[in-house]
């Protein structure tokens, strides 16, 4: 529309290769379509710190109106995020933290508290005799993995009857499966606590392939609780997982807050998103409810893609007409 102010928001993602991050992108795109004149430029760092740093610096050079950053690893990405803020670009940090206070707003759920809630939940499952727990870590350099570990470790009862083993899954299914399989024997394992549902389900799959009987006994606990087929809520409702914790993407809030900043409205330094325990009590109902939501989301995504295609055809035509008129 004529005379309308245009804003470019650069979104720097650690990666867009898993369902939680895809959901975040979709939430952002859907919300952004509400605001005329707002364009999202999305960059995927493919889980590489150097790529992410480079991409943030490109946004700074380009002088985007605002940046949203979800850091792959907190330490290395901090410098580039601070550079953006110091360059006068409003900077929203989402999901994973950076190690500095130099940003405009942080949006995310409290991973330490989620880890603590998982620890308390696991305490209630401890047996009188020995209980062996396997903790499957997300990428160690990411604040979400560290906080989920620290909260869990602080809440967990540590005594001679609790044996803790560590497996590194780096958020991924493949690495988790390999490293769980490498444990060899599963007779003694009682509980698997994974930093996300993808890894909790991968651990289950790996054990299923080697020792299906053990799977019946072991309790698998994850984090994310996404709606939709094959995701966390369904996995809890069909008993694959004993519990999961909702980890909201914050995508919608990020765009809403971005719009406020761009329009000169005051915003908070922090937006704390809430989590919730999903267990067999609430998973079934929630699954049914969210199934429809997931359907809607899919439809919105399809329509959005159609619209984008139409728009780019329209722009092409517009340019061609312009060219013809020039000639
Ligand atoms: C995806 C993801 C989610 C997780 C989040 C934490 O990369 O691993 O599954 O909840 O990142 O930052």
From TrEMBL:
Protein name: histidine kinase
Top-level division of the source organism's lineage: Bacteria
Origin species: Parabacteroides segnis
């Amino acid at each position: 529309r004529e005379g309308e102010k245009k804003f470019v928001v650069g979104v720097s993602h650690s990666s867009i290769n898993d369902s939680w991050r895809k959901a975040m992108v979709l939430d952002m795109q859907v919300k952004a379509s509400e605001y005329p004149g707002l364009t999202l430029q999305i960059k995927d760092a493919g889980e590489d710190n150097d790529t992410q740093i480079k991409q943030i610096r490109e946004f700074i050079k380009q002088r985007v109106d605002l940046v949203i950053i979800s850091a792959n690893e907190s330490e290395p990405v901090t410098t580039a995020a601070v550079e953006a803020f110091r360059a006068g670009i409003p900077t929203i940090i989402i999901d994973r933290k950076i190690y500095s206070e130099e940003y405009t707003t942080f949006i995310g759920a409290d991973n330490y508290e989620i880890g603590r809630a998982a620890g308390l939940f696991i305490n209630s499952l401890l047996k009188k005799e020995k209980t062996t727990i396997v903790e499957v870590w997300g990428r160690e350099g990411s604040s979400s993995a560290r906080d989920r570990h620290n909260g869990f470790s602080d809440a967990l009862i540590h005594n001679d009857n609790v044996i803790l083993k560590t497996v590194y899954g780096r958020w991924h299914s493949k690495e988790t499966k390999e490293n769980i399989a490498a444990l060899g024997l599963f007779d003694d394992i009682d509980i698997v606590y994974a930093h996300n549902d993808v890894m909790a389900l991968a651990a289950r799959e790996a054990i299923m392939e080697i020792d299906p009987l053990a799977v019946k006994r072991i309790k698998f606990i994850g984090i994310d609780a996404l709606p939709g087929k094959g995701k966390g809520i369904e996995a809890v409702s069909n008993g694959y997982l004993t519990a999961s914790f909702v980890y909201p993407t914050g995508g919608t809030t990020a765009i809403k807050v971005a719009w406020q900043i761009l329009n000169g409205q005051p915003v908070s330094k922090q937006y704390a998103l809430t989590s919730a325990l999903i267990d067999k009590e609430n998973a079934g109902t929630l699954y049914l409810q969210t199934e429809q939501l997931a359907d809607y989301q899919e439809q919105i995504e399809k329509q959005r893609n159609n619209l984008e295609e139409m728009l780019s055809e329209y722009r092409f035509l517009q340019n061609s007409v312009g060219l013809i008129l020039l000639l």
